[in-house]
Amino acid sequence: MSISTTTTDYSDGDRTFEAFIAWDDSNEQPRPAVLVAHAWRGRSPFENDKACRLAELGYVGFALDVYGKGVLGNSPEENASLMQPLLDDREALQRRMALALAEVRARPEVDANRVAAIGFCFGGLSVLDLARSGADIRGVVSFHGLFGAPGNTEGNRISAKVLALHGWDDPMATPDQVLSLASELSSMGADWQIHGYGRTLHAFTNPEADDPANGLQYSAHADRRSWRAMTDFLDEVFA
User: Fold this and answer.
1) Total tally of structural domains belonging to the chain
2) What is the pLDDT of residue 1?
3) pTM for the full model?
4) How many CA atoms lie within 13 A of 105 on its CB side?
5) What pairs with residue 24 in β-bridges?
6) Are strands 15-24 and 3-12 parallel, antiparallel or unpaired?
7) Mean pLDDT, the chain, as a whole number?
8) Cβ of 18: how many Cβ atoms within 10 Å?
9) Which CATH number goes with the domain that contains 210?
10) Which of 21, 43, 105, 232 would suit a FRET pair with 65, their CA atoms being 20 to 30 Å apart?
11) Cα-Cα-Cα-Cα dihedral sign, residues 203, 18, 116, 94
């Protein structure tokens, strides 16, 4: 196996975005692709590493960008200021997610009929919104994502299978919000699963997360279990 990586630019109006792509170049056949939606900081080495790990599983990993080329927060305050406009304008977020989906489908190494998406924290919300928009995509996986409904997708049908991997003690997605998500997904006809990890906080896949007082804490057990759940899910949706 030989993993190749590159970056590619794509645009939404006058804003340019930059994605990171990883794939096994020893395989000459088109293969499934998995979008990787970034956390509130922006596309960072964390998401790029996930794209590479997906390439090792035989997929094309496509770490997308919804902030703009070269935009990366360096503090919680900066991260929040980057994320908030898209929380306020979920239609814009959904449009940028759809743009990334179209971009990965156009790649020659990708089987355009077999694409899924995963996302972390804010990225978890982003992939859920992609599904809520009715996008033609095999499945989406939210890792410790935010669950609030966007307010512009009522009445839509979700064709994607949905997997939410959730720390039960995450203060940013409370048990009441978990139940609301389940009701929302059911009302939209989704084939959904929610896995709750006990005694687990937000950001459980990020080894740098170490702020339990504010609800952020890495968990090696939940990290390992959630990645395994994702791989099983991808096996299913791409079968």
Assistant:
1) 1
2) 79
3) 0.98
4) 16
5) 3
6) antiparallel
7) 98
8) 17
9) 3.40.50.1820
10) 232
11) positive
